[in-house]
Design a protein that fits this description.
Blueprint: E1 2-6, H1 9-26, E2 31-34, H2 38-52, E3 62-65, E4 67-69, H3 80-87, E5 99-100, H4 109-122, E6 128-131, E7 153-156, H5 159-166, E8 178-181, H6 184-188, E9 192-197, H7 203-211, E10 229-234, H8 235-238, H9 244-253, H10 258-261
Parallel strand pairs: 1-10, 2-3, 2-6, 3-5, 6-9, 9-10
Antiparallel strand pairs: 4-8, 7-8
The chain binds 2-amino-2-deoxy-6-O-phosphono-alpha-D-glucopyranose (GLP).
2-amino-2-deoxy-6-O-phosphono-alpha-D-glucopyranose (GLP) binds near residues 35, 37, 38 and 161.
Amino acid sequence: MDVIICKTSADAEKLTARMIADAINAKPEFKLGLATGATMENVYAELSRLNQAGEVDFSQVRSWNLDEYAGLAPEHDQSYRYYMNKHLFNNVNIDIRNTHLPDGLAEDEEAEAARYDESIDEAGGIDLWLVGIGKSGHVGFNDPGTSFASRTHVAYLNNTTYEQNKIYFNPPESMPRRAYTAGVGTVLDAKKVLQLITGERKAAIAAAAIEGPMTAMISSSALQLHPDTVIILDEAAAADLKLKDFYKEVFENDPKWAKYQNA
Ligand code: GLP
């Protein structure tokens, strides 16, 4: 795992966007995995800016999102389809037909989940999956107890996740208690994983996920198994990392990071 600590959340968001833009520029027919959440909003704003400035082209990019609430229509303002259209897809030159999220209204949930994994496989797999982390250590909606081998499925959300996300709903109790999520195994199949973690409220779970033992109780800890994971944090989220100084030393001195060192 490569761990990069940026001074501010703005620095971390910009670096994340730049790494994604560089990866797309190196392979225009890019298969991009995406995430939602407050953490990603500025990343998508920066990618939109880079696209509008002609610095990255989404015309051949295909995307798959991590998750979607079961039972929500795409037009619902808390659906992740709505979030993605608003924060990224409407602002860049991606072909909307090439953007994929599970269909929250699908009648046969198991078939929909299987179809989602198949669509990724048929495309040849995800080149890079951008992920965040929830307070319960989840990636996507893979709450504690989810198998590292899990594939896309509908998950019943635990209390931490329900409390974390219901504030966005009006009324809060209208938040669906179940959601589609790419499985931990689905994410681990991506060629590269880029995780962004910002803010003081994520410091404890970031340290547990990155430096603690791998456990299904923290689905993000499964990224320790992935051969090409880059984790970008701001100082606030990195506060509890034991190897903080070492990660900084590596980023400042290892030539493999040269192009990003003074970003
Ligand atoms: C939701 C999403 C996750 C995301 C998490 C963190 O639960 N399903 O994919 O990582 O929220 O959100 P935030 O960035 O708002 O802290």
